[in-house]
Amino acid sequence: MDDISKNTTRYRTGLEVRRSVLGDPHVDRAEDAATDFDRPFQHLITEAAWGTVWARPGWSKRERSIVTLALLAALGHDEEVAMHVRATANTGASRDDICEAFLHVAIYAGVPAANRAFRIAKEVFAQMDENAHA
After folding, report:
1. For residue 5, is pLDDT > 80?
2. Of 50, 20, 52, 46, which is closest to residue 34 (Cα–Cα)?
3. Is the CB of residue 125 less than 8 Å from the CB of residue 85?
4. Maximum CA pair distance of the chain?
5. Do 72 and 23 belong together in one domain?
6. How far is CA 5 from CA 10, 20, 22, 27, 106, in A?
7. Are residues 28 and 89 in the same domain?
8. Which UniProt keywords are given for this protein, alphabetically ordered (predicted)?
9. From CA 104, how far away is CA 108, in angstroms rounded?
10. Are 8 and 46 in contact (CB under 8 A)?
11. How far is Cα 93 from Cα 68, in angstroms, rounded to an integer?
């Protein structure tokens, strides 16, 4: 990906939002791991997801975080659920918010999806709590 495409306003905005939600270490790892093969994908998600959807006015990062977690859980995207549970430290979504989102998943997308999401969130919370006390 050439430098010109990284200089678009949407890309720069997306990178700023992505870093504010996922944290610099996560974004740095993703960028460092990018190859010529998947660099266009990294660019796409930075512009489209983070620079367009997450940067829209009207909803807070907390609200977007809750909706994102519910959708990822409903779709069974376990790694993304874990990543976005960790991101709640930056978005302001509380553990109670996550619980409520996963209760909705249970009713509207199925108990197995919610059960899996609760399990993942509990594991991530345990790691976060351990790191906070270290």
Report:
1. no
2. 46
3. yes
4. 46
5. no
6. 10, 21, 22, 18, 41
7. no
8. Lyase
9. 6
10. no
11. 11
pLDDT of 4 above 90: no
Same domain, 49 and 64: no
Q: Are residues 129 and 63 in the same domain?
A: yes
Q: Tokens 């790691």 label which residue?
A: 127
φ, ψ of residue 81 to 5 degrees: the values are: -60, -50
Count of the separate structural domains present in the chain:
2
Show the tokens assigned to 47: 């512009």
Q: Which two tokens stand for residue 54?
A: 């997450």
SS3 92: coil
User: Based on the domain organization, do 51 and 70 belong to the same domain?
Assistant: no
Q: Are residues 93 and 112 in the same domain?
A: yes
Structural domain for 9, as ranges = 1-57
| Residue among 47, 34, 49, 128 at smallest CA distance from 82 | 128
Q: What span, in angstroms and rounded, lies between the C-alpha atoms of 9 and 113?
A: 37
The string of pLDDT tens digits covering residues 9-66 is 999 999 999 999 999 999 999 999 999 999 999 999 999 999 999 999 999 999 999 9
Q: Considering only CA atoms, which of 74, 71, 115, 69 is closest in space to residue 92?
A: 69
